[in-house]
Amino acid sequence: MNNDLFKGVLILVGLFLAVVVGSIALTDNGWQKVGCAGRAITSGVSLSNVASVCGF
Description:
By secondary structure, the protein is mainly α. 75% of the residues lie in helices and 0% in strands. It is elongated. The termini are far apart.
């Protein structure tokens, strides 16, 4: 794999993660909602019902 391509992919992944973490941190109770979604998914709640369970 080309080194420039690898660096570009890493930069894009880092930028995406920064935007996601920033948007979660800036919302009201963002971290609590992420925790609720994580617990719901690990408990076996289907992905289509996570929003109603966690009150999104």
